[in-house]
Design goal:
Elements (H helix, E strand, L loop, with lengths): L5 H15 L28 H11 L2 H14 L6 H14 L23 H11 L8 H6 L24 E7 L4 E8 L5 E8 L7 H17 L4
Antiparallel strand pairs: 1-2, 2-3
Length: 227
């Protein structure tokens, strides 16, 4: 669940747990700065940004995706909201040499129908994360689910002898009329290829066949022996 004040919510939960154990809790639970000599009762550390990114890519967690963008915005001195997060992400991509002049971002989860991202930008970003010259971005490339094995691709590329199974790592994208897939594929020659496929204006009720067509195209890439 979500709460406007997570720290206070945690304190209230702790107080309730104490009461459930038969301990008397007096006074109201309020937000207050602990004194310098206060003893530590418990502590928790967040997962690393790399771990959060891998989780987001593997499970397509829209909430964490949006949160990560806002962390980027705050780190850059911007506002931690939809517009601030989107602006910070675009600025970061531009700083990596990507042409984002035709990219429109209204949010970082990709749920807004106002978003518009050219497939080439996605493919170039995927290629950048998989570059041996950028080990700092490796968690993004390896965080995408493996086709037929895990996450949002666990049930895809699972046909008998599908060349994409185990050879494709990709991030899925699905809206009411949109199907997308972007990632890497190891082809029959052992080359690692970056790709991005987007289908928009998919007729109502046709997402499944559109997704199957996208998967078939990527499987053809995996089976390709271009040398």
């Amino acid at each position: 669940g979500r709460d406007d004040d997570p720290a206070l919510a945690a304190a209230l939960t702790f107080a309730a747990a104490l009461a459930d154990e038969g301990l008397e809790v007096s006074g109201d639970v309020v937000r207050r700065r602990a004194p310098q000599d206060a003893g530590e009762v418990a502590s928790v550390w967040s997962a690393t940004v790399a771990d959060l990114g891998e989780h987001t890519l593997l499970t397509s967690d829209n909430d964490v995706a949006e949160t990560l963008a806002r962390l980027v915005a705050l780190a850059a001195g911007g506002a931690g909201d939809f517009s601030g997060g989107s602006a910070a992400v675009l600025a970061t991509l531009a700083g990596e040499g990507l042409d984002v002049s035709n990219v429109r971002m209204a949010d970082a989860s990709g749920l807004s129908e106002l978003n518009d991202v050219p497939p080439l930008v996605l493919a170039q970003l995927v290629a950048l994360t998989a570059s041996p010259d950028r080990p700092d971005l490796l968690a993004i490339a390896t965080g995408m689910p493996v086709a037929g094995l895990e996450g949002t691709l666990e049930a895809r590329f699972t046909g008998p002898g599908d060349p994409g199974a185990g050879a494709v790592r990709a991030k899925t994208g699905t809206l009411l009329t949109v199907v997308a897939l972007a990632g890497t594929v190891l082809d029959a020659d052992g080359r690692l290829l970056a790709f991005a496929v987007l289908a928009d204006r998919v007729p109502a009720g046709s997402l499944a066949p559109a997704r199957a067509a996208v998967d078939a195209w990527v499987s053809d890439l995996a089976a390709c022996g271009c040398s």
